[in-house]
Amino acid sequence: MSEKTEKTGQRLPVFKTYKLYVGGKFPRSESGRVYEVTDSKDKWLANAPLSSRKDARDAVVAARKAFGGWSGATAYNRGQILYRVAEMLEGRKDQFVREVADAEGLSKSKAAAQVDAAIDRWVWYAGWTDKIAQVVGGGNPVAGPFFNLSTPEPTGVVVVLAPQKSSFLGLVSVIAPVIATGNTVIVAASEKSPLPALSLGEVLATSDVPGGVVNVLSGRTAEIATPLAAHQDVNAIDLAGADEVLAKELEIAAADNLKRVIRPQAVDYTETPGIERLTAFLETKTVWHPTGALGASGSSY
Amino acid sequence: MSGGIHRGLYSRYARRYAPLVTMPTTATSPTAKHVGGTPTHALGDVTASDSTLRRFLHGLPGVDAVGLEARAASLGTRSIKTTAKAYAIDLAISMVDLTTLEGADTPGKVRALGAKAVHPDPTDRTTPTTAAVCVYPDMVATAKEAVAGSGVKVASVATAFPAGRAALDVKLADVRDAVAAGADEVDMVIDRGAFLAGNYMKVYDEIVAVKGTCGTKARLKVIFETGELSTYDNIRRASWLGMLAGADFIKTSTGKVAVNATPANTLLMLEAVRDFRAQTGVQVGVKPAGGIRTSKDAIKFLVLVNETAGADWLDNHWFRFGASSLLNDLLMQRQKLATGRYSGPDYVTVD
User: Which residues, by range, are in coiled-coil regions (chain A) (predicted)?
Assistant: First the structure.
């Protein structure tokens, strides 16, 4: 019998248990729930965790804890780490091509194009980390003996509702700019196709991104997003994956502690993104620094 | 066989531990012979001499470590929700001894802590006050001023806290200073070195002396530093020793060592105070200190109290939490219950 099995090359299938990615660990949902994820033709692919509000709460704690270290890292260092993510993705491209093809019903070549674009996007944002300060910060001319400097600073903990349709390229396009500038992020993966997002967690865990900088939750977007939009320790929310009704509701909840909000908008994720998403979660800090006493000549030198 | 009171204690232990005791407890209880002789409580004669005290403490049944930890863990699985949770959180807030015991304590920090103890959540005046603030003796006067008129007590650590390595005179002077400055409660540390060396009488005498110095002005909490006592048996012995010497509270730890209050060692001490009251009629409080940081942990301790010592101890006169960061978590949970939104550290004071 065993000989026959060997000859025909049959193996027992090894299914993957998809898990959340929170605080650098891979927990199941606190609620113990899962839901069935299917491909575009309703064929079962895997069970994904169905996150509860408590998973969301834990993710905020993890993201807040990671914020100090990540925002305090040098921009250059963040750039190196994001580039490392791209390197790791390159090595696991086949897996992502398969998952994206299943999730979005694409042919293998079209899915490969999406994954390539997503990897290139990581590299693109990795390059921006130490350049954005020059673009949106700088020295301001003021009428007085002061240096007046504006520097962009990260907003804090950002919640991102990943685009529902573009399960990987869209996901990367909303996460990468947020963490490139030093924020930490909690991302609610696409409700129907969360698998590429959950696998991205595995890549992030092995590419020097400190635990808690990116936290991936899968489940019902509305269920995860509602407590997060009202959470007092969340500083901003990107509603990319919310429909119109949900977005309105979340925006109202987010107003309570004056979260920054990006409203859902039609985006073609294959286009070059521009720097809007980078600057959306930056705050400008301006400092006045005395130049010192001016001599009789009008200069202290 | 022996006196009724004696049987009360031992049959309790016998019932609970008989199948589990690994060390034979052959020593007969000294109380058996002398019960009834003392006016204060039935165990008065235990402390007549070094040898009677040693025989009594070593006659206490051994602790079943696995059973104790399993019991503490199983009591930690209770689900406390909604109105019960709201009650537990308010109770826990009212039991907090808000503590700052840093070398860097300034009068300003102590005043800030006092203000926080009086109004833990300034945005919600229905929040109960904490039980006390706990400071070093030289900060007692400042703390007293900060909480004046609020009912919040001032506790002071004393007796060469946290090591307790000083001569008795020095320790007593420390206590006198604290009491003179107006401390309502004194937290003393026992001499762990003497305890571990088996010199129980020395430890006992020190506690008695400190208690005498406190007089009626201040309640005495005795810190055992359970993390340094090595075994559960030692914690049980220390608990009984402290209670025999007249402690008003027995307290787990200083918060200055690696292992502080755990559910298991607190459970053990709760059993001791329960049995002590059954034996002598004297009620003694318990204070776990150090390492309790979340509301969830605090509620687990409250379950332990209710299930072990009973509802009589569910009051800040008999049970306290020695903590500082715990209060912020309790306040955030309280805000969550009130508003339905998760709160964040931006909405409580950072101290």
Answer: none
